Amino acid sequence: MINALRRHWPEYLAEAWALGLFMLSAAVFTVLCFHPASLVPRWIPSAMVRRFIVGCAMGGTAIINIYSPWGRRSGAHMNPAFTLAFYRLGRIAGVDAAWYAVAQFIGGAVGVLVSALLLRRWIADPSVAYIVTVPGPQGELMAFGAELLLSGILVFVVLAMVSSPRLAPRTGWMAGLLVALFITFEAPLSGMSINPARTLGSAVVAGVYTSLWIYFLAPPLGMLLAAQLHGLWRANTSRGCAKLSHDSSYRCIFCEHAVAAAGG
Question: Are 83 and 97 in contact (CB under 8 A)?
């Protein structure tokens, strides 16, 4: 564990930074679009349209992370469930997957904490509520099913694209588009998390742990099921990189792992 930390700390730090930036962006745009003191709710009464704006901002932030220097270095997973799916396919070493998860949980919490320090009473307002993810009026079962389904869709699409030389360069754009659509249409059901680290980051700062089990169980389960389906669809799933944007000018710990696993 310590040896991996010494060798791969830049990748781990990049993961923490990416999710932290994502959370900060989420907080800022949620305040802008939903806080009663903001002009946006007055100009745009429709909650769905405002969710679309937030979704576009979050999808754009995901795209920036994926194609940024830090995203090209770490792979821009930003999600322990996402990393777990790649581990299931043999594309990341177990020790790196563990450190990625640690970094992602830290990054999510720090991102919300920085947002709270900057936005203060605005992020604490019930209309924003530290961007916590909780089940909607339809209840826990609906939230669980929505989180499970969306997590599976995201991973299956990403795996299909990164496995195709023709589509791989566009993976980040598709991931960002899916995030935007999910937030626009699914957020009223579960808050649209599909990420245990994202949910826990808000929960810790807000002190709200409502139905936390959903966000720790549904996303990993959905993403693992998608990885399993991908494995049935394509033979030798260990081939391929776990980066959403592979750039040969950056070190790739996933390709190094593949070579080592093959005995190279």
Answer: yes
Nearest to 85 by CA among 252, 260, 225: 225
CB neighbourhood size of 95 (10 A): 15
pLDDT per residue as tens, the chain (264 positions): 888 888 899 999 999 999 999 999 999 999 999 999 999 999 999 999 999 999 999 999 999 999 999 999 999 999 999 999 999 998 999 999 999 999 999 999 999 999 999 999 999 999 999 999 999 999 999 999 999 999 999 999 999 998 888 888 999 999 999 999 999 999 999 999 999 999 999 999 999 999 999 999 999 999 999 999 987 776 555 456 888 888 888 898 888 887 776 665
Task: Write the CB contacts of 25 (distance below 8 Å, at least 6 apart in sequence).
Answer: 57, 58, 61
Task: Look at residues 264, 221, 260, 254 and name the one whose alpha carbon lies nearest to residue 86.
Answer: 254
Task: Confirm if 234 and 160 have CB atoms less than 8 A apart.
Answer: no
Residue 245 carries which DSSP code? S
Phi and psi, residue 208, nearest 5°: -120, 115
* Contact status, residue 119 vs residue 30, Cβ threshold 8 Å: no
CA angle, corner 116, sides to 151 and 175, nearest 5? Answer: 25
Q: How far apart are CA 63 and CA 47, in angstroms?
A: 24
Q: Taking a C-beta distance cutoff of 8 angstroms, is the pair 197, 105 a contact?
A: yes
- Whole-number Å distance between alpha carbons of 143 and 87: 26
- What span, in angstroms and rounded, lies between the C-alpha atoms of 138 and 157? 27
Decide: helix, strand or coil at residue 110. helix
